[in-house]
Amino acid sequence: MAFLAQQGALIDELIEAVAGIPKTRRQQRAALRDFVARSLQGHTFTRTNQFEVQDRLRGLEERFAVCGREALAEALDQRLGSLQQHQTPTTPEVLHLLLELADRPAQHAKLSD
Amino acid sequence: MPPPSERAGKQAAAQQAVDILHEIATILNTHLDRRTLSICISMIENGVNPEALAIVIKELRKRGQEIELEAAAAAAGVSTVPTRRR
């Protein structure tokens, strides 16, 4: 399997970092490895639209402001500005991932973190 | 191969980009630490779809919690397998 050959080491690292399963639990790790490989290969998602990502980020900034989290809106705006100097072809996709994993930031995000 | 100074410069720029992305991840309350974010960036650079990756991360978090609970229950001598009632 070319996919596993290419991504295998990263999948193992991801399982350890996210699920925290030690290397001694071989069976559980193997099952998760299989699940991750199948999920990443067999998905039906389309490619990331960078304009849609930008719109979502701007929308989030507005929501922060509406919720009285102006400091958060400003911090996000500042980071997005700084990121422009470090743009790579995959930056929109990484931002897309972050948007998908965002967990009610207007309510729960803390600037002190 | 680029000279060492050029390589070091590129590495520093890449580190800075990861730092900024981690700050954005924190602002968005993604619960991603720096190490996990770096792994995700590498996977995306290798062609992994970000939406599929997000689903995988959420599921891995869930399964990690379940395994932790099972281990804690086993350590306490409690079975997590539901018993059938008559």
TrEMBL record, chain B:
<comment type="subunit">
    <text>Part of the gamma-tubulin complex.</text>
</comment>
<comment type="function">
    <text>Required for gamma-tubulin complex recruitment to the microtubule organizing center (MTOC).</text>
</comment>
<dbReference type="InterPro" id="IPR022214">
    <property type="entry name" value="MZT1"/>
</dbReference>
<keyword id="KW-0206">Cytoskeleton</keyword>
<comment type="similarity">
    <text>Belongs to the MOZART1 family.</text>
</comment>
<keyword id="KW-0963">Cytoplasm</keyword>
<protein>
    <recommendedName>
        <fullName>Mitotic-spindle organizing protein 1</fullName>
    </recommendedName>
</protein>
<dbReference type="Pfam" id="PF12554">
    <property type="entry name" value="MOZART1"/>
</dbReference>
